[in-house]
Amino acid sequence: YFNALKKELSQRMEHAGTIAAAYGKRLKNGDISRLEYNKSQLNLSALQGEIMRLDIERAAILSQL
Fold first, then answer.
1. pTM for the model
2. Is 33 left (phi over 0), alpha (psi -120 to 50) or beta?
3. CA distances in angstroms from 47 to 3, 12, 40, 43, 53, listed in the order given
4. What is the pLDDT of residue 2?
5. pLDDT above 90 for 65
6. CB within 8 Å of 5: residues ≥ 6 apart
7. In this structure, what are the phi and psi dihedrals at residue 61, rounded to the nearest 5 degrees?
C-alpha cells in the first residue's frame, strides 16, 4: 500500500514541479499574478510534506516488523 501511494505521490510531485516552474516563467513575463504563483508553490510544498509524512510512517511500520 505505502509503495503504491508513494509512487502516486511522486508522480503528482513531478507534475506539480513542472506546473510550478511554468508558473514561475509566466510570473516573470507578467502573465499571472504573484497569488497564482504562490498557489502553485504551496501545492508543491504540500506534496513534499505528504511524501515526507508517508516516508516516516512507512519507516515506522517497517521497524515494527
1. 0.81
2. beta
3. 16, 8, 11, 6, 10
4. 83
5. no
6. 54
7. -70, -40
DSSP string, 11-38: HHHHHHHHHHHHHHHHHHHTSS-HHHHH
Q: Which three cell numbers stand for residue 56?
A: 516516516
pLDDT at position 46 is 96
Q: Which residue has the cell 510544498?
A: 45
Q: Grid cell 504551496 — which residue?
A: 42
Query: pLDDT (tens digit, 9 = 90+) per residue, 19-57?
Result: 999 999 999 999 999 999 999 999 999 999 999 999 999
Domain ranges of the chain: 2-64
